[in-house]
Amino acid sequence: MKNTMAFAALAALTAFSPAHADEAVAKGDPAKAQQLVTAVCAACHGADGNSTAPANPNLAGQHAEYITKQLTNFKSGDRKSAIMQGIVTSNNLTPDDMKNLGAYFASQTPKPGAAKDKALVEAGEKIFKGGNSGSGVPACAACHGPAGAGIPVQFPRLAGQHKEYIYTQLNNFRMGERANDGGKMMRMIAAKMTDQEMKAVAEYISGLH
Fold first, then answer.
1. Which residues of the chain have pLDDT under 70?
2. Boundaries of each Cytochrome c domain copy (predicted)?
């Protein structure tokens, strides 16, 4: 069974490698993003990328490549969000704008999160670090790292993210409402998770830093 879980984790890594995706982008200029951040992004995500609204993701410290990809996907429609599609389109964000925004938020310092439900944290830690061999859910740490730091280009930083946002995204992957994951990796994983497992993982992630 351990071999099965290890294979699942390896398959997940392979499915989203740079050779199979377009996440690799040239580095942007944080200074050139300042005006856009102030005018467009700060109201929801905070001027320093630390959002105070649980529904809006923290962007501080997130990998530049990941942010650029998400903005690109919002503009193309590969990732659905009426709000974000409207923002990207109405402000006519260019590829360079997106790279600059990615670089800006990547350069910001994320504030540490705080998990509150001890029972959920313990359950979430088991799944995050070891997966669920019974249902075939691989360990989150296999791709996102033991501390949730992620891997630039390949996998996003999760540490300290709002639990509400994490849960919503996992559920969106499970329902197929979010489909911009390479090789359907997150959709296949989320489809095997129970609602309680998603809540537990989200709670655990919110306390990582």
1. 1-26
2. 28-109, 119-209
> Looking at domain 30-106, which CATH architecture does it have?
Orthogonal Bundle (1.10)
The total of other beta-carbon atoms located within 10 Å of residue 183's CB is 15
Share of the chain above pLDDT 70, in %: 88
Contacts of 82 (CB under 8 A, 6+ apart): none
Same topology, domains 2-19+113-206 and 30-106? Answer is yes
**Which pair of structure tokens corresponds to residue 9?**
């984790």
Rg (alpha carbons) of the chain, rounded to whole number: 17
CA of residue 82 relative to chain centroid, distance = 18
Strand partners, 155: 151
> What superfamily does domain 2-19+113-206 belong to in CATH?
Cytochrome c-like domain (1.10.760.10)
Q: How far apart are the first and last CA of the chain?
A: 31
Task: Return the SS3 of 77.
Answer: coil
The dihedral built from the CA positions of residue 107, 51, 91 and 167, taken in this order, carries a sign that is: positive
